[in-house]
Amino acid sequence: MKLISIQLCNFRQFYDKTPEITLAAGERNTTIIHGNNGAGKTTILNAFTWVLYEKFTAAFASPDLLVNKRAITEANFGTSVDCWVEIKFEHDNKRYQVKRLCYAYRDKKDKIQYSKNELRMLVAGDDGKWVLPPEQPTDIIEKILPTSLHQYFFFDGERIEHIFRYGEKNSIAEDTKELIGVKVLERSIDHLKKAKRYLQEELKAIGDAATKKLLRKQKEIEKERDSLQQRLSAIAVELQQTEEEKKAIANRLLELSGLKELKQLKHKLTEQEQSVRQNLLNSNKNLRSVISRRGYGVFIADVVVRFRSLVNELRAKGEFPSGIKRQFVQELLATHSCICGTKLTEGGKAYQKVQGWMNRAGMAELEESAIRMEAQVGEIEKQVPEFWQEVDREQGNIKQWREELAKIENELDKIKDKFRNSPDEDLQKLQTALDKSEEKIKELTLEQGGIQEKLATFTKEIEAIAGEISKHKMKEGKQVLAQRRIKATEDAIARIIEVRGRLEKQFRSSLEKRVQEIFNHISFTPYIPRISDKYELTLVENTSGIAVSVAASTGENQILSLSFIGGIMDRVREWSQKNTLMGPDSSTFPMVMDSPFGSLDEIYRRQVAQSIPQLANQLVILATKTQWRGEVEREITPYIGKQYVLTYNSPKSDCEEDIIELGGKIYPLVKLSPNKFEYTEMIEVEA
């Protein structure tokens, strides 16, 4: 998972929409967000966890009060205020847009009423359009980075050591199993055990009353499903109308601009964009076609070796090619005359001798088939290098089209910015209208996705009910079949348990070694981290030759926790490249850290600052001015790709204002609010 951006709207301290916060990646993989205590650093950390997992950190107070107070106060009674967080990220060469939203309003009694939140997702297709995902958004997120693991990638640095306290150790063991795919094996074992218990139970018929109840429930769901399908049809019409409005506005915008060169450039870029997208679709289609037609040749190497071994074995036995064919021997026996003139009488010695040649004579059909198959196998082997050449060529084309498409999209964005900032108000209004049309298309598409998700859920519920009804019908021989299945499940359980134990032991040993390396790099103490079979993380001292447990300080616990997380990231990254267990795709990791330096002293602050940019593929640090000072700034600056400042607007007339200097420029951290409300602004630091 590579985070691209995050945007908030009326989420806690952040009034209205914030700018889209673009997150750094690549060689300069670190994003720094500066802010004083209370300005919203913890809010941003929890914005990530809320939108993806509907979870909050322990330091996040009043998690049920999410909607911005000012926005609610300014709204009329009964008028709802939207609150949402939107994240864009990339995974496995696909771009995703995830949005979680809720709303609140003041009722007639001036009490604030909150709605349930809703999760929406879009996926970018190769044609440039955002489309609904093929699966439920929560299922997709779980496959990319499961909920049980989020605390290792989005965490409060000052409280990080809490996850290693006594009550959380079992959780660590379970979460680590999820990372390496062992959890899949445990789920398989649990499923098999449940299946075994089910098969062991005596089947009992379910009465008619239960069946009628299920049928009534099915009818209710079908009625609600029909209502949603009507709304889905209405959205489709509205989407088509908005697309047409968008096209008309875009044409009018170019006509009014009066800039012939700009019109020609946009027209040219639009044509290039359409051409490149078509080329990208064609390359993907060609790649699928090549794999469909010729991909099988890659997997038959072992079969070819076995085939040739069998043919050579037959040749070695003299069964073919052979000077005598079965047809020739059969003719001699039929005419009762040998080629030497001897009469062949049935039962006679000469007859039996000639008859014995039947077993040694070659079969013409077998020999001819073998020759044809050898030629065909040889032809398939010749095609394998050609297949890889075609695959490489099409993949290269896809990469080239993607790069060209990114350049064209950047140029088109620059043209839009010119219209947005044009001194001509008509051009500004048209561009604003165009932006609203695009936003409306996106919102309608998201609503369309939400409805389709509900429809999919209803379909599953209807299928489940139908399945329950069908279970009521007993079938003959089911008990006999159950006994065979019980035996099969017992055997499968035993084998999976053995595999699980070996994998856990191998991974735990590798993880412990990496945690020790990271801890040794950061800490100046002679202590050694140890990980038990229950994933209990402890420190031992071994200077006397005997390992003795030591009590770690708060700072050492923080370093130990960071070392554990860094070790997990490094080892799972390596593990995922060598193993094919069905766990999450662990090739890349983001890490979002709130106050990662905690109460560390100068030496530890410097060592941690040196290490954390290298622990994850992408790093977001939320820090106060005090935490950023001196050695931390010096060590992390070479890795910075993006910086932002959280400016807190205080309603207190006597508030003490504060600033921070970054890159030779001054940015406000705290300033007097222009109104009676407190709120936080997001400012991007100039590069």
Describe the protein in words:
By secondary structure, the protein is an alpha+beta fold. Among the domains are: 208-276 and 418-471; 297-400, no CATH class. Helices cover 55% and strands 16% of the residues. The chain is built from 17 helices and 19 strands. Strands 1, 2, 3, 5, 6, 7, 8 and 9 form an eight-stranded antiparallel sheet that branches. Strands 4, 10, 14, 15, 16, 17, 18 and 19 form an eight-stranded mixed sheet that branches. A three-stranded antiparallel sheet has the order 11-12-13. Strand 8 and strand 9 form a beta hairpin. Helix 6 runs antiparallel to helix 12 (425-471), helix 13 (478-522) crosses helix 14 and helix 14 (554-578) packs parallel to helix 15. Mean pLDDT is 81; it is low at 202-208 and 580-586.
